Amino acid sequence: MDEPVVAQKGPYAVEVEAGERVFWCTCGRSAKQPYCDGAHKTTTFRPLVVTMEKAGTVYLCGCKRTQDRPFCDGTHSTL
């Protein structure tokens, strides 16, 4: 089974709009982190599509090991 690449050991702070659809990279290989750019195509990973509930700053996981996908839950501090 493929393992996700740790894109960064910390979250990506991004601004989102209410109702915005986000394609979060699950493989860690995207050059457009934290978003998917299709780099997963040679893996078993697929992007996670999430519709944001409200506007503001969200913290999307960079280590790709969060249990609260796509949001950072602090897992990176154990890597």
Could you characterize what this model shows?
The chain is mainly β and 79 residues long. It has one domain (1-64). 0% of the residues lie in helices and 23% in strands. The chain has no helices and four strands. It has strands spanning 12-16, 21-24, 48-51, 56-60. It has a two-stranded antiparallel sheet with strand order 1-4. The model has no long low-confidence stretch (mean pLDDT 96).
SSE layout and pairings?
Elements lengths: L11 E5 L4 E4 L23 E4 L4 E5 L19
Q: How would you characterize the largest beta sheet?
A: 2 strands, antiparallel
Number of domains: 1
Q: Hey, roughly how much beta strand do the residues contain?
A: 15-25%
Q: Which value, in Å, is the CA radius of gyration? A: 12 Å
**Fraction of residues in helix:** under 10%
- The count of helical stretches stands at 0
Q: Biggest sheet: strands side by side, in what order?
A: 1-4
* E-strand count: 4
Give the overall pLDDT as a whole number.
96
Helix and strand element order: EEEE
- Structural class, by secondary structure, is mainly beta
- Shape call: globular
Low-confidence stretches: none
User: Roughly how many Å apart are the termini?
Assistant: 20 Å
